[in-house]
């Protein structure tokens, strides 16, 4: 058990095992993960306001070291990198902040947030107690802590938590990481951080540990309660969606319905806060998209939409409204949730009809029941409460519906309801309750009070009162049209608003006691006198026309004339002092006759387009180690590799891998696909390229031959422990679920027959190859050239459409947009191959037309009156079908409405 010691100002912010406590009040943290560095600064306000309108009271953001120190000693805290201004804006909007300065952030961000140049430091080792590494971490902390320190809640700002590192538990144990994490913790404390410290997935003494997950809330809650029983339980990352990588399906498997269910599971388990990771994902501009383990080529797409509640353009999605409904529900019964204890339904005397699973939470005489259907169809179930009252509950398959059982909604007033509550606060001097259910469903709502309840307005058709007048029960149908019931309890007015889910989504809490109804979307714009104007969208049926992209000019990269730097063997990007972009590697190979050769590249970490005598021969996608068939002619041949830095690992024990090509190539090699013909000890034959499943992960073996070659590399879905000819091959840090490794086994193989053994992990596997070659067959001389992908350089020539890399340039005017339209612009690259996009000299990121990304964000804030768009296309494909588009919601017009309660 950890002893928590970091809180210096408990009167401002403190906590116990129930929740965090701010200024003496318990709070449920509804947090939105939003990264300032993944959008233009001009978009911050819109995204943050939409988070607040969805009921978020907190913003979670990483700080990206490589954004703030892109080159050693070159610090950047202005413009889109002005993280201090982002924190100030959060404070202005009344949003607390969870600050996550790293230094490691993962985030599917290049190098996990470390700057590219850090990998060049002699003796550096990442994410451990290493003097070289920590020297530069301390310099970074000097800068970033100064930004955070003055913006803590204890200093008048809104930063309430600061995280130490990130997800260290996925790398090693608390014991392993203690020296390193302790150094980081102390580094924050000594630099003036006095709000509570946080960790996630792994911990350090003096910090509250949170959990990161999407499902399994009970499991994660149990782990935290055993480790830190005296701290609040926070979901530091609740994964609302997932990232996408080139060549994979769209990551849209987490439906809004399942998202809503998982959120209810979080409060059911007892957590007192969750951070939606991501709430708004944004964009991996420039070369900042990262890479992760699981295969050799899991490179992030440029979009970081994440299938999040707000999409890449800041537009609302069905998940946004799911998050909004949940956070409004939590706010309505927050005091109960934060003080309640888990309750076993059977022990409490609660019974339900077959197919309904019931779990509860209790505070005194108040209870909240989570009822979950195990049926295949929607049904009306029945639940009998402890007081003997039986209520009908309509539940969809797999859905969780909350049932409120005598929850106190005000002094002396209790609510029982078989559906969700969306509001419980004083609005224009009247306590207002909103209850809602899915479209076309019924619910039972009962008010019980210490005083008489009178219906002062129109009486609902199905309403019944007890003989003493202190209990009123409503049988409600949730129409498309809102319903309003006016009551008086002990002389105090109470308003009940009955909505269906669609209308609940069109109801907005815009401030304390301020609501708007019947609005598709809302935007709050600062007004005079500290107030704000409210803009409400409505569909116009028309949409501005995007600019046409015409009169393209094109220029080819002349491969044969590229002027490079001579090197003995290829250098990786960092060794060549180039952080991102493209490198062109060139060599010459002499042959005595025409024919093909297997060209072995033992160390290649990015996609490579291979040219022989100026003609494209292959595109290498599977990297780590690779082979390619080269068609060579008699005499001299020029072989070139155009390599794009596709992103550094953002998560792995192998952070800081060299990018590009960093060992010479070898001719006349051999390639063996080793996926077939494995055997178990019982002689059962297993083909790893075929679907199957073996129980208990037996050890498999097979043989292979080496003839006349002294070097061998095993690459692909290697499993550990790996044995060659009975000797174990070291694979430090490797885990079998990584499903890809490039292992030099030259010291373990012998001439002739060899035996390989490894445990079965899964099948099918995409790749498991043996690359063999002779040391004597290495190419001796190379040249390297950086390729200017922001526009054609002096080496370019007129484009002739011959399938060689080319730049395409087009100018367009800024579109004329009415002030009432919030336009979002995107670029659709139909017909292109793979490359980079530049707008007015700004690198918008990589593109690759193999999916899942089709459209690329053009920030409106980065447009000028006249704009220059440049595409660098590796295949030189024609841009004739490339076009600009506005997103669908651009058709919405925004009209001004005075702020305040808009009655129904």
From TrEMBL:
<dbReference type="Pfam" id="PF21467">
    <property type="entry name" value="BetaGal_gal-bd"/>
</dbReference>
<feature type="domain" description="Beta-galactosidase 1-like first all-beta">
    <location>
        <begin position="570"/>
        <end position="671"/>
    </location>
</feature>
<dbReference type="InterPro" id="IPR031330">
    <property type="entry name" value="Gly_Hdrlase_35_cat"/>
</dbReference>
<keyword id="KW-0326">Glycosidase</keyword>
<feature type="domain" description="Glycoside hydrolase 35 catalytic">
    <location>
        <begin position="19"/>
        <end position="326"/>
    </location>
</feature>
<dbReference type="InterPro" id="IPR001944">
    <property type="entry name" value="Glycoside_Hdrlase_35"/>
</dbReference>
<dbReference type="InterPro" id="IPR017853">
    <property type="entry name" value="GH"/>
</dbReference>
<dbReference type="InterPro" id="IPR048912">
    <property type="entry name" value="BetaGal1-like_ABD1"/>
</dbReference>
<dbReference type="GO" id="GO:0004553">
    <property type="term" value="F:hydrolase activity, hydrolyzing O-glycosyl compounds"/>
</dbReference>
<dbReference type="GO" id="GO:0005975">
    <property type="term" value="P:carbohydrate metabolic process"/>
</dbReference>
<keyword id="KW-0378">Hydrolase</keyword>
<dbReference type="InterPro" id="IPR008979">
    <property type="entry name" value="Galactose-bd-like_sf"/>
</dbReference>
<feature type="domain" description="Beta-galactosidase galactose-binding">
    <location>
        <begin position="805"/>
        <end position="866"/>
    </location>
</feature>
<dbReference type="Pfam" id="PF01301">
    <property type="entry name" value="Glyco_hydro_35"/>
</dbReference>
<dbReference type="Pfam" id="PF21317">
    <property type="entry name" value="BetaGal_ABD_1"/>
</dbReference>
<dbReference type="InterPro" id="IPR048913">
    <property type="entry name" value="BetaGal_gal-bd"/>
</dbReference>
<comment type="similarity">
    <text>Belongs to the glycosyl hydrolase 35 family.</text>
</comment>
<protein>
    <submittedName>
        <fullName>Beta-galactosidase</fullName>
    </submittedName>
</protein>
